[in-house]
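Cont'd.
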Amino acid sequence: AQSVTQLGSHVSVSEGALVLLRCNYSSSVPPYLFWYVQYPNQGLQLLLKYTSAATLVKGINGFEAEFKKSETSFHLTKPSAHMSDAAEYFCAVSRRNGGYQKVTFGTGTKLQVIP
Amino acid sequence: NAGVTQTPKFRVLKTGQSMTLLCAQDMNHEYMYWYRQDPGMGLRLIHYSVGEGTTAKGEVPDGYNVSRLKKQNFLLGLESAAPSQTSVYFCASSVRGYEQYFGPGTRLTVT
């Protein structure tokens, strides 16, 4: 079985501060991991993905995430928050399940950026 | 490329009415998915398809049916709408189940 846990359904940071959104996964085999962003009234967009190459993954808009196998974590960070980063962020894990690649999403973290 | 498109964008139904949501993708992706999104519950998979002519149940399939007669289209049907089906519905597609590309969503209200 696989699951994804996002710690904190709401996170608030000041503009210019570090953004840290936490994601822990459980998977019996090495997974593929993703972060998606959802702006209000829009669909999800891929921010970045881990596919067993480099453990530090850089994505769009200055975000990055580090895969830590020992901690089963894939936390999302950005050094300096911008107002435009306010959105909901979803972590997802994908692994082979029988004949197809199963994807499981976390419940999301809403990021508020305070001016 | 239009990517993934969904029709309609908004819909209001009365309890017991039926409707079909259309998803179309122009990326030649094999996999397609239907999700519903409700506050605090993230995305829940309704049905998915791993290729033309195939469909399978996801996490919350009850009350919904799907068809994938053409590779580029994935239809979601509600035969008898219930207020519990009030939600935002997202379609997505992917190459073999890896990163997914999402449509803009359909906001459905059942009164």
